[in-house]
Write a structure and sequence with these properties.
37% of the residues lie in helices and 19% in strands. The protein is of the alpha/beta class. It starts with a helix and ends with a helix. The structure holds manganese (II) ion (MN).
């Protein structure tokens, strides 16, 4: 693995950057991408965040400007002369997670910054540290290395990243250093209350109706160690919800008293099932996801399986059974 010092040097030597995250970007991904973008702005460098679709409404408190990003479909590599731009991938555990971004890499220099344990180091420079709760934490140390002083806007991105990936400081990945970083972010003016309102007090009516429908179908294994939620096409169509609106509901399954593993099965298309896995204390769900070609963290992972819904449920639950 390369050092943050090396990555800092590389960034300081260049002027044009393309920033890539993962498909269906979460709070860590969005917060990290824009915090890095605004840090590069502050250093007088050109950079552009590339996204699949505009940032979700729930990230509105970050005040992301229309000029801060481009959609892949609008992107023409006119920043510098193409060959000059350094690409930076954030929070993407493997190349496929970059989605359309993967096709743009060709001969560009790529810096890969991540905290997923399975990241194979697909960049020219790689900093992968699974000890870090969020990529936002890694960026905090990178900014220190770059001699950049934090301010409210950049800090808000880091805070969103850290709050999201620690589940509001509830997950095992929360370290003493996490709180120290947060204390510092608060000191530079990051409004944690407003941020939490944005993340947790900002549901759409539709999404809560969907939550009700989905939770009514919660199931529990006989020995009560595994709970799961099945979301079929009909439920998605009835509520008009997108698959990404529901995958987060897996935490309700995990959070049942006595349950170790929570699973959600979302039928995103016929014979295409998105599986989300969460564990509480000991089950390495990244191993289960990897068995089916996916990946993730020890306590949060996922995969896609191209089989019938019922068959997928049986397969995954019997694999989970080996661990709980
Ligand atoms: Mn992350």
């Amino acid at each position: 693995m390369d050092t943050l010092e090396l990555i800092s040097d590389k960034i300081l030597q260049h002027n044009d950057f393309i920033l890539l995250g993962h498909v269906e970007p979460d709070g860590d991904c969005i917060g990290s991408l824009f915090s890095l973008k605004w840090a590069l702005d502050k250093l007088g460098k050109n950079s552009l965040v590339l996204l699949d679709s505009p940032p979700e409404e729930r990230f509105g408190f970050l005040s992301i400007g229309d000029d801060d990003y481009r959609l892949f479909e609008q992107f023409k590599p006119d920043l510098a002369d193409g060959a000059e731009a350094v690409y930076i991938a954030l929070d993407a555990g493997d190349l496929d997670r970059l989605g359309p971004g993967k096709e743009l890499l060709s001969n560009h220099f790529l810096i890969n910054i991540d905290h997923h344990p399975g990241n194979p180091g697909y960049g020219n420079l790689n900093y992968i540290n699974p000890e870090m709760a969020a990529v936002g934490e890694i960026l905090y140390y990178l900014f220190l290395e770059m001699g950049l002083s934090l301010e409210q806007k950049i800090g808000s991105g880091l805070a969103l990243a850290i709050i999201s990936d620690t589940g509001g400081f509830r997950y095992q990945n929360t370290r003493a250093a996490t709180y120290r970083i947060m204390a510092e972010l608060t000191e530079v003016g990051v409004d944690i209350y407003r941020l939490n309102q944005g993340i947790y007090g900002n549901y759409s009516y539709q999404s809560l109706k969907l939550k009700g429908l989905v939770l009514a179908n919660l199931e529990l294994s006989r020995e009560q160690k595994t709970a799961w939620i099945i979301v079929n096409r009909a439920m998605l169509e009835e509520t008009g919800a997108a698959p990404e609106d529901v995958t987060g509901l897996v935490s309700y399954a995990r959070d049942i008293r006595g349950v170790e593993v929570g699973v959600i099965f979302v039928e995103i298309a016929p014979r295409e099932i998105k599986v989300g896995l969460r564990s509480k204390q000991y089950c390495p769900v990244n191993q289960i996801a990897a068995f089916f070609g996916g990946g993730g963290h020890v306590r949060a992972a996922g995969c896609k399986i191209k089989k019938e819904l019922a068959q997928t449920v049986d397969l995954v639950l019997s694999k989970v059974q080996d661990y709980v």
